[in-house]
Amino acid sequence: MPSTQPAASVPAFDSLGGNARLDTDAKIEKRAYSKVFWRIMPFLMLCYVVAYLDRVNVGFAKLQMGQDLAFSETVFGLGAGLFFIGYFLFELPSNLLMHKIGARIWIARIMITWGIISALFMFVQTPTQFYVMRFLLGLAEAGFYPGVILYLTYWFPANRRAKMIALFMSGIPIAGMFGNPLSGWIMDAFNDTHGMRGWQWMFLLEALPAFVVGLLTIFVLRDGIDKAPWLDADEKRVLKRNIEEDQRNAGAAAGKGHGHSLGAVFADRRVWWMCLIYFCFVTGQYALTFWMPTLVKSSGVTGNFNIGLLSAIPFLCAVVVMNILGHSADARRERRWHLIVPALMGALGFAIAASFTNNTTVAIAALSLAAAGVLTCAPLFWSLPTSFLSGIAAASGIAVVNSVGNLAGFVSPYMVGALKDLTHSTQLPMYVLSAILVVGAVLVWLTPAKLVNR
User: Fold this and answer.
1) Which residues contact 394 (CB under 8 A, 6 or more apart)?
2) By the 8 A CB rule, do 425 and 298 touch?
């Protein structure tokens, strides 16, 4: 007798089994990424808050330090920028060492070292001492930021990375939101206590968290998926599969003739294109973070604590915008317009702030627009170079792009200080910053579609 079972029943059963396996993997994947997120992201954000606070609190110290030590705007701008020369020189070897030694030990070393140097700023008395200490601070901190970007590629594939980088970089505006009022309060409350000025106390007290968090890093972070005891075997399997697939896609994006060696990274024109784009964005970012207290004070605000409170408003706006756009960029897998729009927001904000320097309300609103724009550009930008770099190329490529781009951290504050001394106004430097951000937006628009839509 012929079988009464439909011929299609066996394939249908196999298909159902396949779908069941896919559903199971999807549940495992969701659970695994939730674990990874809560285990590493809040801690990395805390690390960056501490890092950024110690990097840019010199902008707040300037309100008192510059007068006490008779530093001109140019001296301050040059000293603030020299951080990035040390940063530039040691960033690539630092990232390569982290790739070899592991993030847990290397990031801890970075944080403890910069904490010591940051505390020593309390003894600065001359421009030369100021220059040397800023250079050494950059040398100590080199590798932290690109190291974390590299570290995130160990855990998250490209289609999840923009949101994670945006969350991590929320440390910048969070440091501004809490750090600026804290810095102002320390400088007012501790001024002339035990024979030390407020800015000296600020450097000492704000360096202490780097020691504590640096030590915690050894116990909190793990070097990769295989070394995470809080992931089970199935979770590790799914996460590793996603990373391996992402690396294959990065290899395909690298294209024929582009290898993954260090030499290939330097020979890759796309890496240098990324450097140009990042340079434009970083120019706006560090001008904002170093000069925010001065810009707020010049609009008519008095009192260090009041300046700190009002300086927090633009950073609060930035936290909201950078995370909304980071989520949107991943959801739509679109990067070009998610970068162009905030770059133009930053340009418009600087232009308006330059035109209303004596109006506190308009100045704060314009600086909020500028902060939301320039601080959103950086996390979304990193989806571009990591879309075609993997392995040793990611370690070296990220470091090259970040170190060259961060030379803007030297150029930007020095340029603002020199132009301010020359013109006795912040108008011209802010118009220049606005133009540089427009150039960055144009460069993103000219970037090939295959690099901006992953």
Assistant:
1) 150, 153, 250, 386
2) no
Coil/strand/helix, residue 196: strand
The neighbour count for residue 432, using CB atoms within 10 Å, is 18
**pLDDT tens for residues 420-449?**
888 888 788 889 999 999 999 999 999 876
Match 């998610």 to its residue by tokens. Answer: 338
Q: Which of 168, 131, 83 shows the shortest CA–CA distance to 409?
A: 83
Query: 66-80, 136-150, 205-219: which has the highest mean pLDDT?
Result: 205-219
Query: What are the Cα distances from residue 338, in Å, to 183, 293, 380?
Result: 33, 28, 7
Rounded to whole angstroms, how far apart are CA atoms 137 and 131? Answer: 10
- Backbone φ and ψ for 140, nearest 5 degrees, come out as -70, -40
The position carrying tokens 């890496």 is 271
Q: Which of 291, 284, 298 is nearest to 363 (CA)?
A: 298
**Distance from C-alpha of 317 to C-alpha of 305, rounded to nearest angstrom:** 20
d(CA 365, CA 353): 8
Cα–Cα nearest to 276, from 436, 142, 393, 432 = 436
**pTM, full prediction:** 0.71
Check if the beta carbon of residue 417 is closer than 8 Å to that of residue 430. Answer: no
What domains can be seen in the chain, in order of their start residue? 33-452 (1.20.1250.20)
* DSSP state, residue 121: G
Residue-wise pLDDT for 298-343, tens only, equals 888 888 888 888 888 998 898 889 888 888 887 887 888 889 999 9
Q: The tokens of 195 are what? A: 């024979």
Question: Measuring CA to CA, which residue among 93, 139, 97, 89 is closest to residue 403?
Answer: 89
Q: Tell me, rounded to whole angstroms, the distance of Cα 377 from its chain centroid.
A: 10
- Whether 189 contacts 305, CB under 8 Å: no
Q: How far is 327 from 3, CA to CA, in rounded Å?
A: 54
Cα 242 to Cα 31, 389, 421, distances in angstroms: 14, 16, 53
Are 393 and 253 spatial neighbours (Cβ–Cβ below 8 Å)? no
Contact 373, 437 (CB under 8 A): yes
